[in-house]
Design the sequence.
């Protein structure tokens, strides 16, 4: 787990920047795992999720793949050569395969959000003032990022790569016909000085620096934001932003059409290059207290649909700040630009700055402020039709997303650590037991870990489902098996998870290595090896549940599953409780395959049953 650093006032910004740059340059390169090791672990990983005849066939394919002088060795040499000639052999492949090549909507299925605790905002003026404070706090953090003065983070004593922080500023995902691309304006020779503000589906350019280079004050920003709100009172404007919710192939065609018009091109460029987008939302509909947290999470992911705030967005932006008139606030961001934990830490920095702002008195300024520039779009009949279709598609998507959450209050990290149990491994085993009880089968479960101990590192995947965990869940409810044997199986499953975690964090990851070998075959124009077209390979990457442990005092993160019929689960393990949030996505006009509420209940039952088992049975703590 990455531990965020608290903002501190550096004694010397120059010294801090020099030290940080030295640490960044000194980060190790990400290693290429040994081919033989990955092949062995791959077969072991498949054992609990494929049939015996499939596994037998795959063993033959693996044997052929890694034989001396074979295609596996050739691809491995290519990866090793790539590692010597690039800063990170995996990152470009990772971003391309996991994000830019995917053609489904980036809303829910790719992007993520962070929800802040609800702010004390009761009307438009308070919304404007909080937005102004947030922008000032953000610009303070941006200054530290620009000057390489942001405190370096550490994981288990090792410094982390800080490159992702600059990648979320002035960045945007650009739709392409077959593959999207990313643009980063922050480190250009003339970096942007403006943000975009969207209110009632209308976009404005707002310069956030004075002529002398100093950032606007809270009071100045309040003036500018009020001007924007007054200039966008009309509520029946075409929501051009909703086009960014569409299937990427559809959006890319509309994008090409928009770019043919000079005025549209300039407006798109202004949005894409802006430092961030600030979304001033109207209040969401009232819900019951028990549904409040899950409804806010749903809102932060989607905007609520075309009748609410889904058009009050530009979902391709690297970072959007969402501030509702009812105090519902948070972030929405592109995962392609940076990982969720990085956004979480940045959001925490900004909130700390806002809290400090309460005690600061800014001197009055008399500099005249230029009127914020409204961005105009020339909407052809074809684009108007595209907007109508995007509205419909988005409303269907909103309808098909389900979010459920719970606070498991029976115990938390303190109890588990006192019993010498890894809290994360315990939750992962409980999830596997819950899934097995629901579906009577094991499935691949994705749990990411950070690779930022390496230069430009992104994410690896822990092999959470193992032969040891499969043996545990199959035996757990069998009355013929003694409790002592079940505890032994639990110990083995926890150890297997710890081993997989340690291997992934150290760069010895199975999934990413296999991905690299597959992408290398494409790069070298080699006929795709049978190993990667095998049914077992497809099943290994068919994650029925994606998970992530994210803990922050500033709020919680939210993301949806990549595919319909699967689950996405985020959890925060606190000292005395565990917060769990599950999101599902169903395909339209199909039978419901998932049940978020059922999975959460099964998770609670599994954790209590595992605790009872451990309490009733003596165990040897190693």
Sequence:
């Amino acid at each position: 787990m990455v531990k965020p650093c608290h903002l501190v006032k550096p004694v010397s910004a120059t010294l801090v920047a020099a030290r940080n740059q030295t640490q960044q340059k000194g980060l190790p390169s990400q290693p290429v795992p040994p081919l033989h090791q990955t092949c062995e672990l791959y077969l072991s990983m498949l054992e609990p999720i494929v049939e015996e005849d499939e596994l037998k066939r795959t063993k033959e394919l693996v044997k052929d793949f890694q034989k001396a002088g074979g295609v596996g060795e050739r691809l491995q040499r290519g990866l090793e050569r790539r590692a010597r000639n690039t800063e990170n052999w995996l990152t470009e492949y990772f971003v391309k395969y996991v994000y830019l090549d995917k053609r489904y909507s980036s809303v829910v299925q790719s992007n993520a959000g962070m929800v802040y605790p609800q702010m004390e905002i009761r009307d438009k003026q308070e919304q404007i003032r909080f937005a102004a404070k947030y922008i000032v706090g953000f610009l303070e953090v941006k200054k530290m990022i620009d000057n390489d003065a942001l405190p370096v983070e550490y994981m288990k004593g090792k410094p982390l790569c800080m490159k992702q922080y600059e990648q979320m500023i002035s960045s945007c995902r650009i739709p392409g016909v077959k593959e999207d691309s990313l643009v980063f304006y922050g480190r250009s020779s003339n970096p942007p000085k403006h943000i975009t503000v969207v209110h009632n589906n209308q976009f404005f350019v707002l310069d956030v620096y004075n002529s002398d280079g100093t950032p606007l004050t809270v009071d100045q920003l309040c003036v500018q934001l009020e001007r924007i709100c007054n200039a966008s009172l009309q509520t029946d404007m075409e929501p051009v932003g909703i086009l960014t919710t569409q299937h990427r192939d559809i959006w890319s065609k509309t994008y090409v059409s928009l770019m043919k018009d000079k005025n549209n091109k300039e407006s798109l460029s202004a949005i894409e290059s802006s430092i961030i987008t600030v979304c001033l939302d109207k209040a969401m509909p009232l819900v019951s207290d028990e549904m409040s947290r899950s409804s806010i999470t749903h809102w932060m992911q989607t905007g609520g649909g075309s009748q609410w705030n889904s058009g009050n967005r530009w979902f391709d932006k690297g970072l959007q700040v969402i501030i509702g008139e009812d105090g519902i606030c948070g972030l929405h961001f592109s995962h392609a630009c940076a990982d969720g934990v990085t956004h979480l830490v940045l959001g925490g920095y900004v909130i700390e700055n806002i809290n400090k702002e309460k005690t600061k008195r800014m001197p009055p300024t008399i500099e005249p402020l230029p009127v914020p520039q409204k961005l105009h779009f020339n909407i052809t009949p074809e684009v108007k039709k595209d907007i109508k279709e995007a509205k419909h598609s988005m409303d269907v998507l909103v309808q098909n997303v389900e979010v459920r959450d719970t606070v498991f209050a029976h115990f938390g990290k303190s109890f588990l650590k006192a019993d010498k149990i890894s809290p994360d491994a315990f939750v992962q085993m409980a999830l596997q037991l819950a899934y097995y009880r629901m579906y009577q089968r094991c499935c691949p479960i994705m749990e990411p870990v950070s690779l930022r101990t390496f230069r430009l590192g992104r994410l690896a995947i822990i092999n959470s489902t193992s032969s040891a965990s499969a043996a545990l869940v199959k035996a757990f409810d069998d009355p013929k098996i003694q409790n002592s044997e079940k505890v032994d199986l639990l110990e083995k499953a926890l150890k297997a998870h710890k081993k997989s975690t340690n291997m992934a964090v150290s760069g010895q990851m199975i999934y990413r290595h296999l991905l690299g070998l597959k992408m290398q075959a494409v790069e070298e124009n080699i006929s795709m090896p049978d190993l990667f077209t095998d049914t077992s390979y497809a099943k290994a990457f068919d994650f029925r549940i994606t998970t992530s442990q994210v803990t922050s005092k500033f709020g919680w993160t939210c993301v949806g599953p990549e595919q319909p019929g699967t689950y996405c689960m985020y959890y925060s393990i606190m000292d005395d409780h565990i917060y769990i949030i599950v999101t599902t996505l169903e395909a339209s006009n199909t039978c419901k395959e998932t049940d978020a509420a059922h999975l959460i209940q099964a998770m609670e039952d599994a954790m209590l049953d595992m605790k009872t088992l451990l309490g009733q049975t003596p165990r040897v703590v190693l």
Confidence is low (pLDDT under 50) at residues 1-11. Residues 96-400 form a domain with the Chloramphenicol Acetyltransferase fold (CATH 3.30.559.70).
